C-alpha cells in the first residue's frame, strides 16, 4: 500500500516507525541482542545475474554453473553483443553463510565466519567483529603476507616465527590478519596457533586470527551455507580432494569470506587493504589520546604479488618486517636491505632473483624485473619502515622483538616530531604491556623524560591494569603529586574503574539507588565526583573518621559536623582547619593506594603502598575497607569476596611487619605511631583502625599489648606486683615510700642515664678544644627539659585514677552489690523496703547512670544510631540492659499492694540476680588465665544453641507419639507440655519413665478423667482396669529414643565441643588480647569512684557538660596530635623502617625453598634451551660436513679427470706420485695436479712472476677451499668446465691466474 494513500499523518507515523527501527538496528544494544538479524540486514553477498558460458559447457564466465546463479538470470540472446563484466553483471543480496563453524578434531576447535560482499563498508565489518563477535579492540594489527603456495623454511626460523608471533599477539592483545586458507604462510600461522593451543591447554584460544579469504575458491562451499546462522556448521579439512580450490585453515578463529560473484583468486586483496586502513584509524585504548591502532606487515617468502603488497603498505607508512631465510622475495629484500641504494643495481637483483626464485625466474620478463627493481629501491629508501629479522644463533630473540621494534623506530630529522613519536611509542608499549621493549628502546640514557610527559602513559597503565609498567614509570620520573594534582584526574580514574563491587556501590550512590542488582555499570559511563567517593569510603572505613575529600559542593552530615566541631575544639587548637583540609585532600599517594584497594587490585595496591609514608595506617585502613566490602558483597563464597579477605589479611600482615620493625628499633616511637592522629585517613589512629578492622593479630602484637598494658597501669609502673597495688589501695600512705614505683620515676631515671651518656659523648668530642662557651652551648642545646618527681597529691591522684585500681575497686563494689542483692532476696524482702533494699536501689541507680555515661560519653564513637548498634553488638551490654530492665520490672511489681504481684516481683528479681551473676564473668576477661576460657565458653554456647534444634526434633517426636499412645484427649496444657516435652527431656539425663510399662502401673498415681490437677490422666484402660496400650511398642520407642538421643546426639555434642575447643584454643590468646582493649578503654574512661559513690562523679559530669557546656575530655592515651616537625620526623622514620622491612622480606623470600626451587627451575630451563640450541647447531654442522664430503668427492673426481686429460696429452713427470690410502684420494689428486704444473712447459711464465711460489700454492689451495665452501653454502655442487684437448689449458690454471691478478702479477 502506498504511503500517499494513507494520508499525511499516517505517512509520518510510518516514516517515524521505520526510522526508529533503522536506528535501533544500528545501535550496539541491538547488535548485541540480535546479531543474526543485524548480519542479515547489513551484510551482503554477491551473485552473478548474467549467465554467459566461458567455453565450458554449463559454466558461466563468473566460474559458477547455471544453477548457482539468480533464479532468473539474464539471457544472453536478449543483450546481443554485450560483454560480461563483473561489476555490471553481479548484484548484492543478503548473505546466506554466517554463524559458528566447527572444525572438529582435537579440542573441538570452533570459530565464526561470514560471507561478505567485496563492496562491504569497512565500518560495518569492524562493527561486526567488535559487537557481534564480541572481539576486544586490538592494541596491534599484524598483517601476515607472503607465499600463497606451500613452502618450506628452516626449522630454526619456523620455531622463532611461530613462538614470536604468538608471544606478540598474546602480550599485546593483537589481531593477526591472514589469507585464511590452509596453504603457504597462512598454514604456518595456523600451525603456530595450534601449537600454542595444545601447549596451553585452551580449547578456545586467546589469540585472535582472522582469515580474509575469497569465497569463490573455498572448497566445500555448500557446507558453509547457513541462512539463519543459528546452528554451527561442520567443516573438515580435505586437502586431497580440494583440487584447484583451497580449504579453510582450521586453526583460525574468525573468517571474512569475500565474495565478488566470481571464483577467482585475489578478490579479497582490496577489501583487506581497506579493512587494515580502517582499523589503523581507530583510537587505541579507552582514552582519546590521539594514538591510533598500529599496523605492522610481516613478510615470509612471497612472489611478485607479495612485493606489490609490501610496496603499497609501506607507501601508507605501515612498517614491514621481513624474515630472512624464508625464501624468494623476502630473501631478496633481506640481502639488499643494508646496502646503499646506488649499489642495488638491476644486475644484482637479477642475480638474487635467479638464486632465490630458481626455475620460476625464467618466466619473468625483463620489464617486470626492472619494475620490481625500482620498487625494491623505493622500499630500501624507506629504511625507517623496513626491519629485517636475521637468524642469529648466538642470540635467543624471537620475531616478536623485531615486530615491536619495527613500530618503535624514531625518525631523527625533526626534534619535535621525534618527541611526539617517542610519546606515541610509549603509549604503544603501555598498550602492549611490553616492559622489556620500553626499557630497551624508550627509557634510554639519550632520552630525557619529564613527569608531565609520562602522565598519559601512567593513566593508561593504571586503567589498563599494568602494574609492571606503573613501577617502571615511577622509576623513570613520574611524580604522583603532579600526576594527581588536579581533582579531575582522580575523578577520571574512579570513572574508569574496572567492573568490581565498589564500582557498583559507587554507581548506586551516584544514581540514587536506581541501579538494579546484576546490572553492571560500564567503566567510564558514570560521572563520579569526589563527594561520592568520600561518602562511600567513609561508609567503608566507619563514621568515626572524617571524610577524606571535602570539596565545596559536598554536603556534610550531622556526624561530619560533630566530628569537625570536636576536632576544632579538642584535638589541636593550634592547628587550623585549613591545614587539616589540605593535608586531608592532597595526599596523592594515599589517593592512588585507595583507588587500587577499592578495586581489589593487589599488584597496583602493593606498588602504591610501598610509596606511602604513613604505611601502617594505610595498611590497616585497606584491611578495614576490604573486609567491609567482602561483608557487604553478600556472597561469602564468591571468588571476589575471598580475594578481598585474602588481600585484607595480607595488609594486616604488612602492618604487623612494619610495626615489628619499628618496635624492635624504638618501642616508644613505635607506640607513638599507634596513637598518632593520621590526617590522611580521616583523623583516625592506627590503634582505632586496627580495632574497627578486627585486625586481631595486629592487636595481639607485643608492642600493641605493651601500650595497652601501660594504659592499664596508668601512671603506675608496669613492674608493680598486683598485691602491692592492692595493699596500697587499703593503706595509701605506702605510696609516699618506695614501696610502689611510678612511671615518672622510671622516666627520670632513663633521662639521667641519657644525660650522662650525652655528657660523656660531648666530653670526648670537645676533649681537645679550649672554647668553653662552645661546650656550654652544645650541652645546653642537647639537654632535654628536666622531669620532676610527682608530689604527694599527684601520687595519690595517679594511684586512684589508674584503670587497674579502678578495676579492683569496681570488682569489690560489684561483689558488694551481689552480696547485698542476695541478702535482700533471701533475708530482708519485706512489704515495705528496708534500708538495705533502699541502698540496693541506690546502688542499681549508680549502675544505670554509669551505663548511660558509657553510651553517650564516648569521644571515639559516632552518632546515636551507630552507638546504639555498636552497644547492642556486645553481649555483655545486652546482659546489662536485660538485667536493668528485669530489675525495673521486678521493682514495679514489688511495689504493688497485691500479694500475688508482690511475689511475682520477687521472682523476677531472683531471675535478675542470675543475670547479674552471669555478668560477673565479664570482669574476668582481663585475666590471662580465665579470659581465654570465657571465649571458649561463649563459642560452645553458640554450638549448644544450634544443637538444641537437633535435640528438640527427637524430644518432640518421641514425646508427642508417647503422649498420644498413652493418654486419650488430654486437655490440660501443663500436663500436655509435661508429657510431650518435659518427661522426654528428663529421660536423656537418666530419669526413666514408669508409665510405659504395665508392670509398674498404679491406679493411685493417676486420675481417671483428669479431675485432679496434681495427677496426670490415666492411660486408656481395658476391662481389667489395666493399660490397653501396646506395651511392646512403647518399650521399642523408648529404646530407639535412648539410642539416638543419649548415645548419638550427646556424643555428637561432645564431638562439637571438642572441635570448637581445639579450633579456638590456638586463637584464644589472640582473641583475648583483642577483646582486652574494650575493657581497658572502659575503665580508663570510668570515674575513679566505684558504685554507689560514682553518683558524685556523675553529678559533676552533668554540671560540667550540661550546665556549664564544657566539651568532653579526650582520651589522651588513645589519641595524640603531634606537632608538624615531630610528625614529619616520625613519618620519615616509619618510611625508613618500612624499607628495612621490605628489604628483609625480599631477602627471606629469596632464601625460601619455594624461591630456590623456582630459581633452579629457571636455570634448568635455560640449560635446556642451551642444549637444544647446541643440538640444532650440531645438526646443522653435521649436515654441512656431509655436504662438504659430497663436494670433496665430486672435486676428487674432477681432479682425476684433469690428471687423466693431462697424461693423455703427454704431460709427464720425472717424480713418482707417493702412495696414499683411499681416504687420501683428494690429496693425491692435488699433488698430481701440482706436479703437472711444475713440469709443464707453461711453468716458465711463473719464473718471472713477482708472486712467491709458496704464496702461489697457498692461495691456490685457499681459493679451491673457498670455492668448495661457497658451493656448499648455496647448495650447488661445483661445476667444472670441460677444456678441449687442443687448448692445453688446465682449469686449475685459471684459478692461478685469478690469484695472480689479485696480487698484480701477470701470468
UniProtKB/TrEMBL annotation:
Residues covered by the TRPM SLOG domain: 112-338
InterPro entries recorded: Ion_trans_dom, TRPM, TRPM-like, TRPM_SLOG
Molecular function terms from GO: ligand-gated calcium channel activity
UniProt keyword list: Ion channel, Ion transport, Membrane, Transmembrane, Transmembrane helix, Transport
Domain annotation TRPM-like: ranges: 441-701
Domain Ion transport as annotated: residue spans: 808-1068
Primary subcellular site in the record, as a coarse category: membrane
Transmembrane stretches, start-end: 807-832, 877-897, 903-924, 944-961, 1032-1057
GO cellular component terms listed in the entry, alphabetical order: plasma membrane
Record localization: Membrane
One Pfam family recorded for the sequence: Ion_trans
Keyword Transmembrane: yes
Membrane disposition: Multi-pass membrane protein
Name listed for the protein in its UniProt record: Transient receptor potential cation channel, subfamily M, member 2
